[in-house]
Amino acid sequence: MGDLVLSAKSRSGVSAIDRLRTSGCLKTLFPRNAEAVEAILINTSGGLTGGDRLAQVAEAGAGARLTLTTQAAERAYRSASGWARVDTRLTVQAGGRIDWLPQELILFEGARLQRSLRADLHGDARLLLVEPVIFGRAAMSERLHDAALRDRIEIRRDGVPLYSDAVRLEGDLTVQMARPAVGGGAGAMACIVYVGADAEGRLAQLRSHLPITGGASLLRPDVLVARVLAEDGFTLRKTLLPALDLLSGHGLPVSWRL
Fold it and tell me: Are 206 and 224 a contacting pair, CB within 8 Å?
């Protein structure tokens, strides 16, 4: 079990920690960052399995910038019974920004994981998020023949839905990801969402960083969405690094480059 409550505020034009509370297996480190409050989330339990629960609540106040990432890839291990759950709630006030940039989720054989992420934006708030997933470690020749992932993302601005997406993969994920209409044989995938007034102007640049197995679309003038499929986690990261650098304004956390 682990809980995180974190908020950032703008103080004399500089983002600073407003509130912080952690409990259980969730810990937080704060590297120095002149542009934002940067938080590295650490799951000290070493991974997720059946019955585990993580709850993460973060808010960027008016004019504040908050960047959240993870120390390393998260791991969802075999579940003896039940599901692991990760629930994330993000709130961004007018003039604020949150960059939700966790490193990869690695699914292992027998994993059972349910995740939900909801972001509530106000006024001209901005949001960048990425959710990368790896279906077993290619270097270890891992294949997932019995695993489950249920993933949901919802984004709203002033109560109005901007984006809603759900992924449900259960059973033999190797077979499912091999289907042309699902994964085309990919061993990793990622979803990127950028919400901001300048989203339309970033579309062409983002597309230039994507491989033939990726695509980007402008859902509305301020909502840019990209999806990427890759052979493995290494190939996926080679695509994500320049794409996230672009959308974050070259503010990608250092932990992504280690």
Answer: yes
